[in-house]
Amino acid sequence: MLVTATVVSFLGIDIVMELVSSLIAMAVAYYAALGYRVTLSKALLYLNLSFSILGCGMFVDSLLTGLSMTIFKASQAEAIALLRASTLILYACEIIAFGILVFSYVRQRFSSNMTLSSLITIVLMRGYMPVMEAILIIMLLFIFIQAISSASTSRSRASIFVSIAFLLLCLSHVFFMIVRIWLFSYIIAHSLQLLGFVFLLAMLLTVRAKK
Amino acid sequence: MSVPSKYRSRIRIIADILAVIRDHGGRARPTKIMYLANLSYERLQRYLNDMMSMGLIEEEIGYEGDREAVYYKLTDKGLKLLLEVEKFKAFAEAFGLEL
Fold first, then answer.
1. Rounded to the nearest 10 degrees, how much is the dihedral formed by the CA atoms of B31, B32, B38, B42?
2. Shortest CB distance from A158 goes to which of B86, B90, B98?
């Protein structure tokens, strides 16, 4: 009961956290775009594409989740459909975004007045799909291994931040995968996701501050 | 792991040349650049001409002992580009990618 109450009080905050994460993803994408304009490097183009798609997906998901929460009482069926659509959009964006990052590594290597039960339904009706989450976890693990290998060679603070960010994003998807069996993992997943993007922001600031 | 690619991109070669000049006090002899930037003489000449027309470096006549010698000097524009490229390089490398 305590877990349920905590998750309910967390609803709304999750949208804000995802919105902040999407803005950080957009900032990374923007910096990569600036870099591409100067260097014409394909690596930066892939980073730009990847984080633009990821940022857009998270932005749309947070907007649609917010919208479905507002219409939930009036039309539960429409709200649930909207939630499922937003989850599918997010999955598609994440798989494409992380797929682009995986491709770039591979390429480089080879050349509030709702009822308690209805609020809980919102979390459960998002329809987290374990198979999709598993695909994302595998992709993020691959990206994390690439990043940590690079960090162990360069030992730069920025590489370490990126490695931590992808590890946290990977862990967040592990917790998203088990939302149906452990509701509290929803809060942990969102917190880890936001923390992951905060590390990406820290990397961006470290790189920008470099003299 | 980030594996260095066999071929350097054009921007990496330009940045390598600019870095050699900067690391030698802002001006360097072509032979020094050729050796440290790992380029053939013909390729270096092509790059130096392109970089001069872009305003990234300037040719300067100096003295090596009592002999006249050609030096290449870094311009403000060249230094600015080098600093920018180094930031973007660090950004890409943070992800385990290279420019």
1. -20
2. B90
CATH code: domain of residue B61:
1.10.10.10
Residues of A with CB under 8 A from a CB of B: 31-32, 34-35, 38-41, 43-44, 46-47, 101, 104-105, 108-109, 111, 146-147, 149-151, 153-154, 156, 158-159, 161-162, 203-204, 207-208, 210
- The ipTM is 0.79
Residue B87 has its nearest CB partner, among A146, A159, A208, at: A208
- Radius of gyration for the alpha carbons in chain A, expressed in angstroms and rounded: 18
Structural domain boundaries, residue B61: 10-89
Could you report the per-residue pLDDT of A52-109, keeping only the tens digit for each?
A: 999 999 999 999 988 888 888 788 888 888 888 888 898 889 889 988 988 888 787 7
CB atoms A153 and B81 under 8 Å: no
Query: Domain for residue B5, yes or no?
Result: no
Positive or negative, the Cα torsion across A55, A57, A61, A63? positive
Residue at B61 is within a domain: yes
pTM passes above 0.80: no
Please give the C-alpha separations between residue B61 and each of A183, B35, B65, in angstroms, as whole numbers. Answer: 74, 20, 13
- Taking only the tens place, the pLDDT of each residue in A116-138 is 555 556 555 565 667 777 888 88
Cα separation, B90 vs B92, in Å, equals 6
